């Protein structure tokens, strides 16, 4: 939950303060960051009494993290392509959403375009989707550890 809020705070800072325009794959990665956070909030407030429900929330969050990592990898792949192999740029996402059916926009977003191949910012030689991939990986490892220890964690929670 807090990881999601921190990641979104950084994304919004980069968009509004640094004026970096997100591409379609960036929006998909943001979706999975937000979904991960929402799953955490729902799980926290639901406070499941059964271990199977507890594990279900962990698996849902893990799935969101995995899909976010997949789209980060896709964008890193597009960024690694030579200029002649980069796909052409699509119109702005707001225009696409107003003029093209949603499923077509979603398919275009999954494939990525020339805008997704552009590296707008990097730190230590790693671009934004690279840092997101690292974050998704760390969160995924943490979730796998929680899943591994879930029976013990859940039984301790019930004893309190």
Report what the structure shows:
This protein is mainly alpha-helical. It has a single domain (2-159), classed as DsbB-like (Bromodomain-like, Up-down Bundle), CATH 1.20.1550.10. Helix content is 75%, strand content 2%. The protein has 8 helices and 2 strands; from the N terminus they run ααααααββαα. The protein has a two-stranded antiparallel sheet. Strand 1 (122-123) and strand 2 (126-127) form a beta hairpin. The longest helix is centred in the middle third of the chain and has 30 residues, at 51-80. The chain is elongated. The relative contact order is 0.16. The mean pLDDT is 83.
Q: Briefly note the CATH topology name.
A: Bromodomain-like
What percent of the residues sit in helical stretches (DSSP H or I)? over 70%
**Count of structural domains:** 1
Radius of gyration, in angstroms, nearest whole number:
18 Å
Give the SSE order as H and E letters. Answer: HHHHHHEEHH
CATH-defined superfamily: DsbB-like
Largest beta-sheet details: 2 strands, antiparallel
Residue stretches low in confidence (pLDDT < 50, at least 5 long) are none
Q: Can you tell me the CATH architecture?
A: Up-down Bundle
How many distinct beta strands? 2
Question: What is the arithmetic mean of pLDDT?
Answer: 83
Map the helices and strands:
Layout: H1 2-16, H2 24-46, H3 51-80, H4 93-99, H5 102-111, H6 114-117, E1 122-123, E2 126-127, H7 128-148, H8 150-159
Antiparallel strand pairs: 1-2
Helix pairs in contact: 1-2, 2-3, 2-5, 3-7
């Amino acid at each position: 939950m807090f990881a999601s809020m921190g990641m979104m705070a950084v994304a919004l800072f980069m968009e509004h303060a640094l004026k970096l325009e997100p591409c379609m794959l960036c929006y998909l990665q943001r979706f999975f960051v937000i979904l991960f956070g929402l799953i955490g909030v729902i799980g926290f407030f639901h406070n499941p009494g059964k271990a199977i429900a507890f594990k279900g929330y962990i698996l849902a969050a893990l799935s969101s993290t995995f899909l976010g990592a997949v789209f980060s990898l896709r964008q890193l792949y597009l960024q690694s392509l030579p200029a002649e192999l980069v796909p052409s740029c699509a119109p702005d996402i707001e225009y696409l959403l107003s003029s093209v059916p949603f499923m077509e926009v979603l398919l275009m977003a999954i494939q990525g375009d020339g805008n997704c191949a552009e590296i707008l910012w990097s730190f230590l030689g790693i671009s934004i989707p690279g840092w997101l991939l690292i974050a998704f990986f760390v969160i995924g490892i943490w979730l796998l550890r929680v899943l591994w220890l879930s029976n013990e964690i859940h039984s301790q929670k019930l004893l309190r």
